[in-house]
Amino acid sequence: MTDTGRRTGRRLERTILELLDARAPTATICPSDAARAAYDGDDDGWRHLMEPAREAARRLVAGGEVEITQGGRAVDPRTARGPIRIRRAR
Question: Cα–Cα distances in Å, from 26 out to 22, 41, 73?
Answer without folding.
Answer: 11, 30, 12
